[in-house]
Specification:
- The protein is mainly α and 332 residues long.
- It folds into three domains: 30-104, Dna Ligase, domain 1 (2-Layer Sandwich); 110-178, no CATH class; 188-297, no CATH class.
- It is 49% helix and 11% strand.
- The chain is built from 14 helices and ten strands.
- It has helices at 3-29, 51-61, 68-76, 95-104, 120-128, 135-142, 164-178, 181-190, 194-207, 214-226, 234-243, 256-259, 283-290, 316-330, and strands spanning 40-44, 49-50, 81-82, 85-89, 110-114, 143-144, 147-148, 154-158, 299-302, 310-313.
- The strands form five sheets. Strands 1-4 form a two-stranded antiparallel ribbon. Strands 2-3 form a two-stranded antiparallel sheet. Strands 5-8 form a two-stranded antiparallel sheet.
- Helix 10 crosses helix 13.
- The longest helix has 27 residues, at 3-29.
- The protein is elongated.
- It starts with a helix and ends with a helix.
């Protein structure tokens, strides 16, 4: 046998090993989606759903997604069960990593955007689009009676698999984190609890969109609380009327009949603060309430000469004069 033949026999095994190693690397690093560059959302609303069923559902909703290697790998792994959750299959991830994420239940966080001035129905509807739970169960977890749990406007990173109780607990932790020692001390000085400050702030933000007026409006209501007077806040009447289904939004003017609507939130009929916030409250409004003081002013009405602002008064007679000016201005 020639020297060349013996040499080729010695080299061939190493060459074959290199080919197999290269092939293994290609298969191992092959992306989760064949020939696609867009991430795919995977919603698994029920526990113990088989992975092939999940992939079939994804393929129906995303015809451009090619998940052939994922399916092959899922069969090799025994068509395992996928924990409930929201996942994303990234085209840059190898197929085995995507399968491992589904198998282990490594969810992809979702962004929950809670805006200010959102009422009960709008808030629950927003939550229901993020989590798998029905809106009525989320409502029950977040609301007690007619009151709204203080949910601060923010962008939250959450997992879709959270139960209604866990959602409420998460919102509660965010509310607790907002209340640092300085804010708690300010609330105590006003003679209000954290929750009561949030309730009052929800009324203030409904009365005016002008930050410069927030402390003064809060001062009016603090004075009325201190003197044992009813707040007589129009936004609470609007809330009561809409909650009873007696009118459609938006309500542009509160009538005498509306003032008599029986409802726990109607501060024309009930003394003290309503049982809960009217809507989600922007943190700057809460801080404005904490910075306010009872000034002796008891009334305010819209300023006809300066739209968006108000005229304040300490006596009812002065308030009637301001109100008369406003009514004349809008009826011209």
């Amino acid at each position: 046998m020639s020297q060349r033949s013996r040499k080729s026999r010695r080299i061939r095994p190493w060459w074959l090993a290199g080919v197999f190693a290269l092939a293994a690397a290609v298969v191992g690093l092959w992306p989760s989606q064949d020939f696609s560059s867009e991430p795919v959302s995977v919603r698994v609303p029920k526990d113990s759903t088989r992975v092939l069923e999940v992939l079939d559902s994804v393929a129906k909703q995303n015809p451009k997604a090619h998940l052939n290697l994922l399916r092959f790998g899922a069969r090799l792994q025994g068509n395992f069960q996928v924990p409930r959750g929201y996942y994303e299959i990234s085209p840059s991830d190898p197929w085995w990593r995507s399968l491992r994420r589904l198998k282990m239940g490594y969810e992809t966080p979702r962004s929950l955007v809670v805006r200010g001035y959102q009422g009960r129905a709008a808030l629950v509807e927003r939550l229901a689009t993020t989590f798998f739970e029905p809106a009525d169960e989320l409502d029950s977890a977040l609301f007690g009676g007619d009151s709204i749990v203080p949910v601060l406007p923010n962008t939250y990173e959450v997992y879709a698999s959270l139960t209604p109780t866990e959602v409420a607990e998460r919102m509660g932790r965010e509310f607790d984190a907002f209340w640092n020692a300085q804010r708690c001390t300010a609330a105590t000085e006003l003679g209000l609890s954290r929750y009561e400050v949030a309730v009052l702030a929800s009324i203030v933000q409904a009365e005016s969109k002008e930050p410069s007026e927030w402390p003064r409006i809060a001062g009016v209501y603090l004075t009325r609380l201190k003197q044992g007077k009813r707040l007589e806040a129009d936004p609470t009447v609007v809330y009561a009327v809409l909650d009873r289904g007696l009118a459609e939004a938006p309500i542009r003017r509160v009538t005498g009949a509306m003032l008599r609507v029986a409802h726990p939130f109607n501060t024309y009929r009930n003394k003290g603060l309503p049982p809960g916030p009217l809507a989600t409250v922007h943190p700057p409004v809460i801080d404005s309430v904490l910075a306010s003081r009872a000034t002796g002013e008891l009334f305010f009405c819209a300023n006809p000469a300066k739209p968006g602002f108000h005229l304040f008064s300490k006596s009812y007679a002065e308030h009637l004069r301001n109100r008369s000016r406003y009514l004349k201005a809008i009826t011209r």
